[in-house]
Specification:
This protein is mainly alpha-helical and 338 residues long. The protein has 12 helices and no strands.
Length: 338
C-alpha cells in the first residue's frame, strides 16, 4: 500500500483527497455562477436584462467566459519578471481555496477541525496581500505598482479592525474553534448583541476584498485596472476567480461568526428540518447578495476617505467595543473557561 503523511495508509489519504474535491468542485462552480449572479443583480438594479443569450436565461455565460479566457494567449510584458508574474495569480487563487479547510458545513462536517481555525483564517487573509504585491511589482508597470500599493495599504488597514472584531467574537464564544463558535450561537446569533461589530466586519470585508465602494485599486480614471492591468487570459482569470472566491469566503466567515453558521433561525421546528449545510449555503448566498447590492448602490470612496474610515472610525470604535464586551462579560460572569 502507498505510504504517506496520513498514517502510512492510502485509504486515509484517499478520504482526505475526496473531502477536498467535495469542497473545491462545488466552490469553483459557485464562483463561476457568482459572476453570473453579479451581472444579473446589477442589470436588474439598472433596469436591464443582463446575460440572456448564451443558454437559457444566459445560464451558460460563465462557461462561455471561462472557455474564452482559456483559449486566449497569455501575454507576458517584456520587462516583467516572468516567474513572479505567473506565480502571483496562482498564489492569490490558491489562498482563496486553502482557507476552506477549516470552514465547518455542519456539526462534524469539516476537512480540518483544528482548535485555532479562526487564527488560520486570519493568517490566510493576511497572506493574500503577497499575491497582490507580487503582481504589481513583477508587471514592471507604474500603474500596476501603484494599484498594488493602494490595495496592500487598504487590506492591511482594515485587517486591524477585523482582528478586533474576531477577538470580540472569541470572548463571547470562549473558543478559537469555528465549530464551537457556531454552537455558542444556539440561543442567540452574535449579530444581535454584537451588531456594531457585525457591521464593521461586513464593511471591512468589502474593503479587504477590494469591492465597491472600496474598489480603489481599480480606479479607471487613474489606475485603469490596478495591480492586474498587465494580465490576460488564464492569469487574469486566476485573479478573477481569487477575488470572487475571497468574497464567498468572507461571506462564509460572516455567516459562521455572526449568523449562526448552519443553525436554523430561531430554532423553530419546521426550520430545523432543513439540513445544516442548506442553511449555511442560504446565509452565505444572502451575504454575497449584500456584496452585490452595495456595489449597485454606493459610489466609490476617495482614497483619503477610505483611510480615514479605517483608522479614525473603525479602529477606535472596534477597540472600544472590545473593551466594553470584555467588561460586560467579566462583570456578569459570562466568560467561558475552557
Amino acid at each position: 500500500m502507498a505510504s504517506g503523511f496520513w498514517g502510512g495508509y492510502a485509504l486515509p489519504t484517499a478520504i482526505v483527497v475526496g473531502e477536498v474535491i467535495a469542497v473545491v468542485v462545488p466552490l469553483l462552480i459557485a464562483i463561476a455562477y457568482f459572476t453570473y449572479a453579479e451581472r444579473k443583480v446589477l442589470a436588474f438594479s439598472q433596469l436591464r436584462k443582463g446575460p440572456n443569450v448564451v443558454g437559457p436565461f444566459g445560464l451558460l455565460q460563465p462557461i462561455a467566459d471561462g472557455v474564452k479566457l482559456f483559449l486566449k494567449e497569455t501575454v507576458v510584458p517584456s520587462g516583467a519578471n516572468r516567474i513572479v508574474f505567473v506565480a502571483a495569480p496562482m498564489v492569490t487563487f490558491t489562498l482563496a481555496l486553502v482557507a476552506w479547510a477549516v470552514i465547518p458545513f455542519d456539526y462534524g462536517i469539516v476537512i480540518a477541525n483544528i482548535n485555532v481555525g479562526i487564527l488560520y483564517l486570519f493568517a490566510i487573509s493576511s497572506l493574500s496581500v503577497y499575491g497582490i504585491i507580487m503582481a504589481g511589482w513583477a508587471s514592471n508597470s507604474r500603474y500596476a505598482f501603484l494599484g498594488a500599493l493602494r490595495s496592500a495599504a487598504q487590506m492591511v488597514s482594515y485587517e486591524v479592525s477585523i482582528g478586533f472584531v474576531l477577538v470580540t467574537v472569541l470572548l463571547c464564544a470562549g473558543s478559537l474553534n469555528l465549530t464551537d463558535i457556531v454552537m455558542a450561537q444556539q440561543h442567540i446569533w452574535f449579530c444581535i448583541p454584537l451588531l456594531p461589530m457585525f457591521v464593521i466586519f461586513f464593511v471591512s470585508g468589502l474593503a479587504e476584498t477590494n469591492r465597491a465602494p472600496f474598489d480603489l485599486p481599480e480606479g479607471e480614471s487613474e489606475l485603469v485596472a490596478g495591480y492586474f492591468v498587465e494580465y490576460s487570459a488564464m492569469t487574469f482569470a486566476l485573479f478573477f476567480l481569487g477575488e470572487y472566491g475571497n468574497m464567498i469566503l468572507v461571506s462564509a466567515m460572516t455567516t459562521i461568526l455572526f449568523l449562526g453558521g448552519w443553525l436554523a433561525p430561531f430554532g423553530v421546528v419546521p426550520f430545523t428540518w432543513v439540513p445544516g449545510p442548506v442553511w449555511l449555503a442560504l446565509k452565505v448566498a444572502f451575504v454575497c447578495f449584500c456584496f452585490l447590492w452595495v456595489r449597485a448602490t454606493f459610489p466609490r470612496f476617495r482614497y483619503d476617505q477610505l483611510m480615514r474610515l479605517g483608522w479614525k472610525v473603525f479602529l477606535p470604535f472596534s477597540l472600544l467595543w472590545l473593551v466594553l464586551t470584555a467588561g460586560v462579560l467579566t462583570g456578569m460572569g459570562w466568560v467561558p473557561v475552557r
